Amino acid sequence: MYRAKDFxxxxxxxxxxxxxxxxxxxxxxxxxxxHFGFPTHExxxxxxxxxxxxxxxxxxxxxxxxxxxxxLISRCLEMMRQIYERNWNVKSRPYPGIPExxxxxxxxxxKMAVLSNKPHDLTQRAVEGLLPxxxxxxxxxxxxxxPRKPDPSSALEIAxxxxxxxxxxxxxxxxxxxxxxxxxxxxxxxxxxxxxRNAEELIASGARxxxxxxxxLLELL
Length: 221
Fold this sequence. Notes:
This protein is an alpha/beta fold. The protein has two domains: 4-21 and 92-220, 3-Layer(aba) Sandwich (Rossmann fold); 22-87, DNA polymerase, domain 1 (Orthogonal Bundle), CATH 1.10.150. Helix content is 43%, strand content 16%. The strands form two sheets. A six-stranded parallel sheet has the order 5-4-1-6-7-8, sandwiched between helices. Helix 1 (22-35) crosses helix 4.
């Protein structure tokens, strides 16, 4: 049984949780697809392409005829990276209520960390550029040295760095990948319904609590 006093820290996902990045990702990937003469996708499709790293995003976006060509996938991946690095902050913004939530978490004394399957350098730029007013003890994105979520290694590394037992963490994310990561790490999984996935996926993946607005997280504290 978790009680409010048990929580000393929180891990927050980026895309679909802290930041609404969908339009910039979709625009960048569609530009890549157009360059190679492939069909583009509607915005809603990208909610399901995202969540497991940029390489999986590219693979899911490509037509079936291109998914078996490693060299073509590599070229598309490189172009997507280049375009997105130039355009990651054109339309991306914190979700409504996120600034107030971060203020409240800070006031409660919770240690805050960020964990994303977005490339590490872009994760850092997104947090520094769009969430500059708050202190995050650790900001961690995808890198060759750390297995991608839902492997719990990155979440457990954050716990170790912060000196907090996994059971003392709330883990807030918007996808089944986040919920699986939280449970595998022994953290309290909270699903954000304003993000990219639906309640059914979050519950099936182990969400302990679902929240429709950021402020609802404070009920745990």
